[in-house]
Design brief:
alpha+beta, 6 strands, about 100 residues, binds zinc ion, 3 helices
């Protein structure tokens, strides 16, 4: 079985299995991290992972969580509220043909 050596800031080097490590890659933003729960002090440790660490952990069998690019998009403006949804429902009730209203002029 593959053993992954990681370093806990409090306990020093610890041995982990691939299942005990979680790798998160946000390729669109250019960052990656890996996390593990220290087997000694049980703290959750998160560290940055460069391309070499990502490749090593992946090849060792650590599952990769890919962060979709959409998550990192900025969305200016206020979130849609319950009133916005209600207004849309009322508007839809009074309009039989909606396509012309959706097309930009
Ligand atoms: Zn520890």
């Amino acid at each position: 079985m593959t053993t992954i050596k990681a370093t806990c800031p409090m306990c020093g080097d610890v041995d982990l299995t691939p299942a005990q490590v979680r790798l998160t890659v946000a390729a669109a933003a250019g960052w990656a991290t890996y996390t593990f729960k220290c087997v000694s002090c049980h703290d959750l440790i998160e560290k940055a992972a460069d391309d070499e660490v990502v490749a090593l952990l992946s090849s060792a069998g650590v599952l990769v969580d890919n962060v979709p690019g959409e998550v990192l998009e900025s969305h200016p403006g206020k979130p849609i509220s319950y009133d916005d949804v209600l207004d849309l429902a009322l508007w839809l009730e009074s309009h039989d043909v909606i396509v012309p209203h959706l097309v930009m002029h």
